[in-house]
Write a structure and sequence with these properties.
The chain is an all-alpha fold. It is built from 21 helices and no strands. The model has no long low-confidence stretch (mean pLDDT 78).
Length: 512
Amino acid sequence: MGDELFFLALAVAVALVAGRVLARRLLVPEAILLVAFGLLISLLPGVDDVRVDPEIVLNLFLPPLVFHAAFLTAPRETRADAGPIAIMAFTLTCATALVVAAVTGWAVPGLPWAAALALGAAVAPTDPVAATAVLKRVGAPRRLVTILEGESLVNDGVALTMFGLALAALDHPVTAADTLVELVKVVAGGILWGIAVAGLVGWLRPLVKEPGAQIVLSLVTPFVAYLPAVELGLSGVLATIVVGFRLGTTGQGLLQPASRLTGQAFWEVLVYLLESTLFVLLGLEITDVFGAMPGQSWSRLLVTVVAVIAVVVLLRMFWTLVVVPLLRFKRFETIDVRQRVAMGWAGMRGAITLAIALSIPFDVPNRQILLFLAACVVLATLVGQAATLPWLLRRLGLGESEAEIKEEAVARAATLEAALARIDELAADDRIDDRTADVYRQLFELRLDTVRSVLGEDEGRPEMGKLRKELVKAQRDKLNELYRKGRISVATQRKLLHELDLEERRRASGGH
């Protein structure tokens, strides 16, 4: 078994690399290729004997994914739109789970209602990654991005709480009163545990100085929040969300400045690996899924797939365009119909849905069919909605406004001017020498000139961007030459190249 696991891990790693490379070259959604690679891997000799425990999927993948999403939540903007976020996350998630459960229960004979509800809970939460990536790329209004991110964060907690209750109902019959008591215990206990863990980690943070140890602390934190909560019968997801949100919204955050850049890169890679691996694991399950299909009516199964996808997509559009406006919630009334259309269409399902579906226990009746339906929903929304969202946003005219560009440039200019003023103060007090002051003054003035060009205060100098690229290239070439001639060590070469990479990355992202 050890050899099979090693071979499987190696095959998955190859699939992740090949999927990313081919997706960019073929211009197709990466998720489809990853599922296809997973299917091919499942056909290899010996791999069909390897089964991934659903609890491993739930306990290994969910905590860091949920924590990362919560940590990046914008606190002030999220609080300002807490009403629309709560309405979308609670009412729409519950409605989607219940309607999908009803449709699935009708379409699949003999399916227990709790199993149907487990599927409904799996496909109810949206995935913010695909939607917000498109929205940010085309410069959609920031408020729209914030609402979608906040909704996805909250509906993860709602859906996973419903999923836990559905699994509990599969084990033993429960009454409405039992469900209510259990719900209060799970939700309240999870929130309180999350607050306690956030306090502990916040106390530890200043004591951990070494950058590598800080990154390890950030990695351990979601599991400390999630796993004990689950063992105590509480909501591990809510606990993880609370920890991520509290740590992410404090002034200092979890990582100190010295390790922040490295930590961000680490988490970006980790989240990518986890999400991509889930799609490959889905492909690995496909052969088992189709192996369970011979006894099923394919026409009925096709009708079920279409019905579930239609519920997931159309119910969200109906909710944003009809139901929510009828509630006459004040903050939601300020969102115009174009943005509500975009919100309705930006309901893609992704990693969280896959993680929940793959964690359905093996002994649940018709598990393969439930997994198949969840996979169809994920692929249909990623292909159908993610691929057409950029076109829809352009048709709706939801691009980045000039005011937002100016706002960011004004903020950058103000911070750079503050730094220049501080340099002058330190030089006047003889706390730094004139040479040092001149070096830093030139550095910040160069960045300020770039920002002023965005503000229109430095027109007529389009050659500056090209010149900067040429200068960076000349510095890289010189460093490589010095290393080849043995005049500098590889450590010095890599350090200075890294500084050039950071500078280029700041300029590419607008952080001049």
